[in-house]
Amino acid sequence: MSLKRIVVLISGSGSNLQAIMDAIQSGQINGQIELVISNKADAYGLIRAKNAGIATCVIDHKAFDSRESFDLAVQQRIDTIEPDLVILAGFMRILSAGFVRHYSGRMLNIHPSLLPKYKGLHTHQRALAAADKEHGCTVHFVTEELDGGPLLVQAVVPVKTDDTEATLQARVHEREHIAYPLAVEWICADRIRVCEDGIYRDNELLPTSGFRLAYNEKTDSGASDATHS
Ligand SMILES: Nc1nc2c(c(=O)[nH]1)N[C@@H](CN(C=O)c1ccc(C(=O)N[C@@H](CCC(=O)O)C(=O)O)cc1)CN2
Ligand SMILES: NCC(=O)N[C@@H]1O[C@H](COP(=O)([O-])[O-])[C@@H](O)[C@H]1O
């Protein structure tokens, strides 16, 4: 099976980018990151990519007079790569309808909550404020509706009584670094199909909440809870 061509969009630290890079390096993911694009020039994820010899590009959204013109510039750069998969990894811009349609069915995002709870921003703060007993992250296909696309993988973490936003975020982050590579592994192995009635992994219809990883559960690919800070 030929390597899938991957483009990753970031805005910040890039720990999820690093987790996917590491999973490619270990042979878990049958893919190759061809380009990393950031809308922030100071994103540490750019350093991670450069250290790994991956091409990078900064497209500053503030340099454009509309969301659509920024999105078109990003799309035109992505399409020079002809990717099989576009991965949002901490990319902090809402994407316009045209951009999302252009990559329909081949664009993923990781969101720091158990969707459909807490779409948008400040998810850990909201979970703590609600005194939730559990929280987590979700890997989903990107659609025009913000954080509303089909759910592929969810990882659950407990919320502890003495949790702060930082401790909860760190616990979720660790599970993101398991969940995202797992989702990308399955897509790059052509095991995932998005159909009218839901998402199939092989011939198994996944729950509408996606494949659920319990806390500290090892993945079926045997990946450990490696950290990718
Ligand atoms: N059309 C879509 N665009 C994006 C999706 C999506 O599902 N559909 N996922 C987001 C990722 N995301 C949460 O997971 C998210 C990112 C950014 C924002 C947001 O409010 N951004 C503001 C700017 C915030 C900032 O610059 O700090 C904005 O774009 O005006 C909400 C949710 C990626 N895009
Ligand atoms: N709404 C989007 C959002 O908040 N995404 C979150 O940004 C962080 C990026 O971390 P990273 O840059 O270290 O991968 C991740 O925790 C991801 O869930």
Kindly list the characteristics that best describe this protein.
single chain, 229 residues, alpha/beta, Rossmann fold, 2 domains, 8-stranded mixed β-sheet, globular, binds ligand LMY7XDAE, binds glycinamide ribonucleotide
pLDDT under 50 segments (min length 5)?
A: 221-227
Structural class by sheet pairing and helices: alpha/beta
Could you state the CATH homologous superfamily of the largest domain? Formyl transferase, N-terminal domain
Quote the distance from N terminus to C terminus: 31 Å
Average pLDDT: 95
- The coarse overall form would be globular
Description:
Keywords: Purine biosynthesis, Transferase. It holds the Pfam family Formyl_trans_N. GO terms for molecular function: phosphoribosylglycinamide formyltransferase activity. Its EC number is 2.1.2.2. It catalyses: N(1)-(5-phospho-beta-D-ribosyl)glycinamide + (6R)-10-formyltetrahydrofolate = N(2)-formyl-N(1)-(5-phospho-beta-D-ribosyl)glycinamide + (6S)-5,6,7,8-tetrahydrofolate + H(+). With 229 residues, the protein is α/β, with parallel strands linked by helices. It has two domains: 103 residues, Rossmann fold (3-Layer(aba) Sandwich); 120 residues, 3-Layer(aba) Sandwich (Rossmann fold), CATH 3.40.50. The chain contains six helices and eleven strands. The strands form two sheets. The protein has an eight-stranded mixed beta sheet with strand order 3-2-1-4-5-6-7-11, covered by helices on one side. Strands 8-9-10 form a three-stranded antiparallel beta sheet, with no helix packed on it. Helix 1 packs parallel to helix 6. The longest helix has 24 residues. The C terminus is likely disordered. The site of glycinamide ribonucleotide has 15 residues, from helix 1, strand 5 and helix 6.
